[in-house]
């Protein structure tokens, strides 16, 4: 008889684990949300958090996580290729032709900046539901069962290892369990892990600003990569600073972190602005005696919310440099018209720690050698933008926890932060588990 595997969560990590195991085991996927075409704007359901995105696939093992932390470099690239092939088989578009990145690479290297010319595939929000449905159909054809709108509350454990899961006071038995509850499910996962004595650790977070510039200064760069990734070490503090989530012709939007405000950005298909925005973020890793990066991030967000009177802060880079606050009057003198006006013109150095402010100014000055104009006095900065990270579950090889047969993968386990890497971690666990069948 085939062994029974329960997978919790039908995001990329859970679905790809199921694809790998469907011929080898009796697989049941339990998901608290609905089917993708019955979902409104929620981040739960078949397809997971990626199901409501516009599906930008970064075909690189060190973007959206770092697979080389868990497998060899060669294996990491091989996993990305496999995940990509599956996405293409189910409808992801072929890659577009881009101009050569050589000149940009040279310019970046000469300024002490790493530019990652990664291949990207853009599925598009209109195509994503069909793609997810196609994967689900293949799984069902392969015998995988889905139990939707069902919340897993706990895992069942004995001295021998995992024995199944608990749903609404009902026990479902299995030989193996893969937990893939995603970023939103990470507090639940952490509490289950703590309850069963499995160690966890805090991961670095990213804190910074959303930068907004006239789109024309970014045009040749986005022709090479729609979401170009620049990474650098800034001179004074030697901190790691990077660009993230570039939104060409896009809009800055409000975000929230619990009761604190923040910002984010996006591009729309049918509506374009004259600006391009991107997150400019400083990596924060804390060591003993304070390791709780999440608490630190929230306290920054709360301070920014206080000084912004409940709104995100907006400041011209020139005002930040000169140590004075921005006012609407000064903002109007900028060449860049803000796409988000529900903000308080103010002084970002009153909200973000000195070290982060220095890192941002120095990093933008460096980037200005690669993208002239990006560090002009007119450049607009919105704060805060914070990327929190799930706590990492400490596992053995193949993401198996110290409890035999229990695996944790994807964003919720703190081992990925994007669709490609999440899917790849699902494959790693499924391969490890598959080898024991
Ligand atoms: C708005 C948005 C846009 C994004 N855009 C992109 C993008 O363009 N490119 C990219 O690479 N990444 C993007 N991401 C990130 C990407 O979606 C995630 O990295 C990826 O989906 C993580 O996969 P996962 O399988 O680990 O978790 P998820 O996709 O979050 O899936 C986890 C699933 O588990 C279910 N679940 C949780 N707890 C339980 C429980 N107790 N019982 C049962 N089910 C449970 C949830 O309902 C959910 O469906 C975006 C994320 C968001 C929120």
Q: What would you say about this model in short?
A:
The protein is an alpha+beta fold and 437 residues long.
Describe this entry's structure for a reader.
- The protein has helices at 12-21, 73-89, 102-110, 128-141, 186-195, 219-224, 293-307, 317-321, 328-332, 354-367, 419-434; strands at 4-8, 26-30, 56-58, 113-116, 120-122, 145-147, 152-158, 161-167, 170-173, 176-179, 200-201, 205-214, 229-233, 240-247, 251-257, 260-266, 275-284, 313-316, 344-345, 380-387, 392-393, 406-408.
- Helices cover 28% and strands 26% of the residues.
- The protein is built from 11 helices and 22 strands.
- The mean pLDDT is 94.
- The longest helix has 17 residues, at 73-89.
- The strands form 6 sheets. It has an 8-stranded mixed beta sheet with strand order 4-13-14-17-12-20-18-19.
- Strand 8 and strand 9 form a beta hairpin.
- The chain has 437 residues and is α+β, with helices and mostly antiparallel strands.
- It is globular and about 70 Å long.
- It has 2 domains: 4-92 and 127-199 and 391-434, FAD/NAD(P)-binding domain (3-Layer(bba) Sandwich); 205-387, no CATH class.
- The structure holds flavin-adenine dinucleotide.
């Amino acid at each position: 008889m085939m062994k029974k595997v329960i997978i919790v969560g039908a995001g990329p990590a859970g679905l790809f684990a199921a694809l790998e195991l469907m011929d080898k085991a009796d697989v049941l996927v339990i998901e608290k949300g609905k089917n993708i075409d019955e979902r409104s704007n929620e981040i739960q359901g078949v397809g997971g958090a990626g199901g409501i995105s516009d599906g930008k696939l970064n075909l690189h093992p060190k973007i959206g996580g770092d697979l080389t932390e868990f497998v060899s470099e060669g294996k990491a690239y091989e996993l990305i290729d496999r995940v990509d092939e599956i996405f293409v088989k189910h409808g992801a578009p072929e890659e577009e032709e881009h101009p050569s990145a050589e000149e940009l690479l040279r310019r970046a290297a000469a300024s002490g900046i790493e530019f990652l010319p990664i291949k990207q595939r853009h599925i598009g929000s209109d195509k994503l539901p069909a793609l997810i449905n196609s994967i689900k159909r293949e799984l069902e054809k392969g015998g995988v069962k889905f139990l939707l709108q069902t919340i897993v509350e706990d895992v069942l454990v004995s001295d021998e290892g995992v024995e199944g899961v608990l749903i609404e006071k009902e026990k479902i038995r299995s030989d193996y369990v893969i937990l893939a509850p995603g970023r939103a499910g990470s507090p639940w996962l952490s509490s289950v892990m703590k309850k069963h004595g499995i160690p966890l650790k805090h991961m670095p977070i990213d804190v910074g600003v959303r930068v907004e510039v006239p789109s024309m200064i970014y045009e040749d760069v986005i022709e090479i990569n729609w979401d170009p990734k620049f990474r650098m070490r800034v001179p004074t503090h030697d901190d790691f600073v990077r660009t993230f989530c570039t939104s060409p012709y896009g809009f800055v939007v409000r975000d929230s972190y619990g009761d604190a405000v923040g910002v984010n950005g996006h591009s729309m298909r049918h509506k374009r602005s004259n600006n391009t925005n991107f997150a400019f973020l400083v990596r924060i890793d804390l060591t003993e005696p304070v390791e709780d990066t999440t608490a630190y991030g929230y306290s920054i967000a709360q301070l920014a919310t206080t000084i912004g009177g409940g709104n995100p802060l907006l400041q011209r880079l020139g005002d930040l440099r000169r140590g004075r606050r921005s006012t609407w009057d000064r903002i109007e003198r900028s060449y860049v018209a803000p796409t988000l006006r529900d903000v308080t013109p103010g002084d970002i150095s009153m909200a973000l720690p000195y070290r982060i402010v220095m890192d941002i100014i120095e990093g933008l000055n460096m980037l200005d050698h690669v993208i002239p104009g990006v560090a002009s006095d007119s450049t607009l900065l919105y704060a805060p933008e914070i990327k929190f990270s799930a706590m990492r579950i400490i596992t053995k090889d193949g993401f198996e926890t110290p409890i035999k047969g229990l695996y944790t993968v994807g964003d919720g386990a703190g081992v990925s932060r994007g669709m490609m890497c999440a899917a790849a971690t699902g494959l790693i666990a499924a391969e490890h588990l598959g080898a024991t069948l």
